[in-house]
Write a structure and sequence with these properties.
Layout: H1 14-18, H2 23-26, E1 33-34, H3 46-57, H4 68-81, E2 90-93, H5 96-107, E3 113-116, H6 123-130, E4 134-137, H7 148-157, E5 174-180, H8 192-205, E6 208-212, E7 238-241, E8 255-259, H9 264-267, H10 280-292, H11 294-318, E9 323-324, E10 332-336, H12 346-354, E11 356-357, E12 359-360, E13 371-375, H13 380-392
Parallel strand pairs: 1-11, 3-4, 3-5, 5-6, 6-7
Antiparallel strand pairs: 2-8, 7-8, 9-10, 10-13, 12-13
Helix pairs in contact: 3-10, 4-10, 7-8, 11-13, 12-13
């Protein structure tokens, strides 16, 4: 495979992107610049495209089976994080949120509380509430870091929850903590010390930790991802990972749930039919990415690093009132627009007046009002145009 790959964010023309039929390019009218949903403006990594073309040419479009995914994930985790993913502690699932739901079904009961760190990925609220569990918020600090005192209080007492919580009623124990690592939308990459403190708190409170690590490969220069299950004391925890975000494979369904050393028995009780959900082509694509996509990922991360520095410069020039803390992971930027006087949902003004689509901050729960999430996994030219449009809306 090639070891030299050019920046994937510079390879798709506007016309090519507009021909795409996925959500990013079809939800809004053609005059809107889409910077919202977590799809990247990149071509497929060559190893992924080759693997999929070979499968289609061979008619290899049946049902997924075998251990190829966990073996590929084990290889990637070993190269990048020094972590071994053992097949006997892993189970394939359709996608990360489906994996989270299935794990929560194993370790919680209806009425139990699940703690989340707001502002956080909106489906955390939606999926947990739809399961009949309560959402309890433990907000991040003003700097976007985990607040151990707030987390400890949430573990002890529960609370009123946020969007999607079951009326804030105290219907059961605090049973689980859904950790977003790296964190969406702030881009925070949790440190080893923070994760160790989380583990100690959870153990002392009898709370089970489930880590959503979908953005784990997307950690930018200056930070390092610590897989949660490598932290001492996480034997009763779970992690859910996927190649989908790092290689732009959301339409190719597949993910992996991994159990701590003392949780494999619980994972073995996951219904067998859950393993029917991943797409065979999804598994093929994800395996190719994890095995052969390192060079492409390295080029992507360099491009994202350039874009986060460009975004800081553009905001300083055109929208100096907007607060932006350079994110450490993901390809998402969390923008504090409260000083612009656009109300709780500045994304609405950016869309209506500037014709640029961002994700509204209030959807992320407490701490989201007055904010918006911007996807900067695009060309520098698109990023420049987006900020100019946002400035025109003020």
């Amino acid at each position: 495979m090639d070891t030299c790959v050019s920046n994937p964010l510079r390879q798709c023309s506007p016309d090519e992107l507009r021909r795409r039929t996925s959500a990013k390019w079809r939800v809004h009218p053609a005059d809107v610049l889409p910077m919202w949903i977590a799809e990247m403006d990149v071509p497929l990594a060559a190893p992924v495209a080759e693997a999929l073309h070979e499968a289609v040419a061979a008619g290899d479009t049946g049902y997924a089976m075998g251990d190829a995914y966990v073996e590929a994930l084990d290889g990637f985790a070993g190269r990048h994080w020094g972590w071994r993913v053992r097949p006997e502690r892993a189970a394939i699932v359709p996608d990360v949120m489906a994996g989270v739901v299935e794990v929560l079904k194993l370790i919680t009961s209806p009425g139990d509380a699940v703690v989340v760190n707001s502002p956080v990925y909106p489906p955390f609220y939606q999926f947990v509430a739809h399961m009949g569990r309560r959402v309890v918020e433990a907000p991040l600090t003003a700097e976007g870091r985990l607040d151990m005192d707030t987390l400890a209080a949430a573990f002890r007492t529960g609370g009123d929850g946020g969007p999607g919580a079951n009326g804030g009623e105290d219907g059961g124990r605090v049973a689980a903590y859904l950790l977003c690592s790296p964190h969406n939308p702030t881009g925070t990459v949790h440190t080893a010390q923070e994760l160790a403190a989380v583990t100690e708190l959870a153990a002392g409170s009898g709370v089970r930790v489930v880590a959503d690590e979908i953005h784990a490969p997307l950690v930018l220069p200056g930070a390092r991802h610590i897989p949660y299950l490598t932290v001492p004391g996480t034997e009763r925890a779970f992690s859910v990972l996927s190649a989908s975000k790092a290689w732009n494979l959301a339409g190719l369904k597949a993910a992996m749930t991994v159990a701590g050393a003392e949780s494999s028995g619980e994972l073995a009780r996951m219904p067998e039919e859950v393993s029917h959900g991943p797409s065979h082509l999804g598994v093929i694509g994800h395996v190719a990415a994890l095995r052969h996509g390192d060079a492409w990922l390295e080029a992507l991360l360099a491009g994202l690093d350039e874009n986060r520095r460009l975004l800081a410069d553009l905001l300083k020039e055109h929208l100096p009132e907007v607060g932006y803390r350079s994110h450490e992971g993901t390809f998402l930027a969390w923008l504090d627009c409260r000083a612009l006087g656009l109300g709780d949902d500045p994304a609405a003004a950016f869309l209506e007046r500037g014709r640029v689509a961002l994700i509204p901050g209030p959807a992320f729960g407490t701490g989201g009002a007055g904010h918006a999430r911007l996807n900067l996994a695009t060309s520098p030219e698109n990023l420049e145009e987006a900020v100019r449009r946002m400035a025109s809306a003020v």
